[in-house]
Amino acid sequence: MGILWAVLSAIGFALFQVVNRRAGLGIDVLQATFLLILISALTLTGIAWAVEGSDSLQQLSAPAFLAFALSGVFHYALGWTMLGLSQRAVGAARAGALVGISPLFATAIAWIALGEYISFIALLGIVFIVLGVYLVSTDSY
């Protein structure tokens, strides 16, 4: 089931690339990111309360809340704003391909910060991902 969720996530991100590029054409990138995060937060809050109830947030520890807050700053505030800028500069297709190098950074950071083991096969896969992203992003349109 985990692979299915990952594939559905990839489809969702692909749809986001195209829709966000089109929606953000007539609006400032920071405003577009703000609206995106606001609408997502409201939608997810409603879904979470319907599924989990409001008690689940009250059970969150302070360190966990801080970790989620930092994650939100890096991923949403900075990452999605920079993605919006990238989409405007190089288009949704190329920006989407360039985001494909995130496994390289995630693997390196997880190894350094969390001490996670990286197998040779995983490293080989990352090399192929980076090579593929390079080939896609340097192709002339």
From TrEMBL:
Protein name: EamA domain-containing protein
Compartments, as annotated in UniProt: Membrane
InterPro entries recorded: AA-Vitamin_Transporters, EamA_dom, EmrE-like
SUPFAM superfamilies attached to this UniProt entry: Multidrug resistance efflux transporter EmrE
Pfam families: EamA
Native organism: Candidatus Thermoflexus japonica
Similarity comment: Belongs to the EamA transporter family.
EamA domain boundaries: 1-138
Protein keywords: Membrane, Transmembrane, Transmembrane helix
Top-level taxon: Bacteria
GO cellular component: membrane
Keyword Membrane: yes
Main location: membrane
Membrane topology label: Multi-pass membrane protein
TM stretches of this protein: 31-51, 63-83, 95-113, 120-137
